[in-house]
Amino acid sequence: MYQLIKDLNSVLSSPVLTGADISTRYQHDWSAEEPGIPVAVARPVSTAEVSAILKICSELGQSVVVQGGLSGLCGGGNPRTEELAISLERLVGIEEIDSGAMTMTVKAGTPLQVIQEAAAAAGFVFPLDLGARGTCLIGGNIATNAGGNQVLRFGMTRNLVLGLETVLADGTVISSMNKMLKNNAAYDLKHLFIGSEGTLGVITRAVLRLFPKAKSRCSALLALADFESVIKLMHILSRDFGGGMSTFEVMWHSYYHFITDNVPNITSPFAVRHALYVLTELEGADSERDQVVFESALTAAIESGLVVDAVLASSERERDGFWKLRDGVAEIGALIKSGANFDVSVPISLMQPFLQAIENELTRVIPACKLLVFGHIADSNLHFICYTGDKADVKTIYDIVYRNVGEFQGSVSAEHGIGVQKLSYLPYSRSPEEIALMRTLKLALDPQGILNRGRVIP
Ligand SMILES: Cc1cc2nc3c(=O)[nH]c(=O)nc-3n(C[C@H](O)[C@H](O)[C@H](O)COP(=O)(O)OP(=O)(O)OC[C@H]3O[C@@H](n4cnc5c(N)ncnc54)[C@H](O)[C@@H]3O)c2cc1C
Hints:
This protein is of the alpha+beta class. It has four domains: 88 residues, Uridine Diphospho-n-acetylenolpyruvylglucosamine Reductase, domain 2; 119 residues, 2-Layer Sandwich (Uridine Diphospho-n-acetylenolpyruvylglucosamine Reductase, domain 3), CATH 3.30.465.10; 115 residues, Alpha-Beta Plaits (2-Layer Sandwich), CATH 3.30.70.2190; 97 residues, Alpha-Beta Plaits, CATH 3.30.70. The chain has 15 helices and 17 strands. Strand 4 and strand 5 form a beta hairpin. The longest helix has 17 residues. The protein is globular. 46% of the residues are buried. The mean pLDDT is 96. Bound molecules: flavin-adenine dinucleotide (FAD). Flavin-adenine dinucleotide binds next to strand 2, helix 4 and strand 9. The site of flavin-adenine dinucleotide has 37 residues, from strand 2, helix 4 and strand 9.
């Protein structure tokens, strides 16, 4: 170990952290997975330093864990006691905004919020957005192929990255800092690393896509009687909003009323309780015309009986109030002990039977089990929290839910990734052949298995 620390300190501009200097910040992410204290924490400031660290680790056979903002929800960034943590927190900065190409070149340790603000200041939008925007780093977003609130319109992080620089386990730098939308010059290697959760390489820089800022935004909170109406409404609005729909978030009554009943300063604008709630938004380029399109589509939906009640935001304050209901999920952790959090995909047409099946089985096996459900339905993404308050029930809940996800042809991870939390459940969503190919890729890029060992691939 002495050799490792000595070698690392000889190539880094600031010494690695060891012992009592390793604060709890480097010991765990936002998941409930086991925390750990790594042998040391290296905080490189350049790609060259990341490369030098990995060259040393590969020569010594030293395993590493890669850390971004540690807002991950699957335990992927939690260190083990024998690992070196490589924190990207000092590899920070926006290198360039190219207004002509509509791109931004960034270092991997730049916080997402800093990127969003820089894009806005330059008159653009970087549309990746999630509740952890102030904490997560862009390298972590790319490593997890993060989803978030704007996937419906802009796709996942994968769609927002044009170029990528990555350091392989042996220290080799693969720089593919492409700025063009079209580039079919053989394999597009960046896609190997996007969503690989640090198992194939350490992301150090990226070229991101920027988009024109929308000139108008209309928001409404709707109440509906059943899930069939939700699906019909989604199809009608995506047609009648003329392709401008940017949000279609669904909250089941269980989730919605848990938030309004328990989280201070979050209230429902409706006088009575309903079965389902939809937060929808239209973004466009002409505020007057967009408002007319938005209101007439919603009026038609109310007149046809699909929507039973509606509130349209007439100010930023009201819009924020709608989003507080949806973002209130961040408060649930403090209110529920030992909850099992799910981020799964299920084909939209199977969502209701899927939810019914898990509710039936969970309440049969664990009668005290409760479910809070919400989701980015248009992306086939359901989030839910199942809980009894007893930690001993969590494993049984995971087993039941993930088995059902497999039976309903869903994915055990829609956007948060696998990390360590879902490792044993991956076979419900990936075939043995797919997993074998993942192992082949891992072996080719990281033959000693030093990068994020024991994560993602079972
Ligand atoms: C309140 C809250 C809301 C959230 N909402 C969403 C959401 O809507 N959608 C969503 O997708 N996620 C969401 N998340 C999860 C999390 O924010 C994302 O997964 C985020 O992309 C992780 O970024 P990070 O920098 O914190 O990564 P970390 O947690 O540090 O790491 C995540 C994984 O990526 C690896 N990694 C990190 N940086 C690099 C790098 N530079 N190179 C290679 N590997 C790396 C790590 O080893 C780890 O396996 C939310 C989390 C919280 C706490």
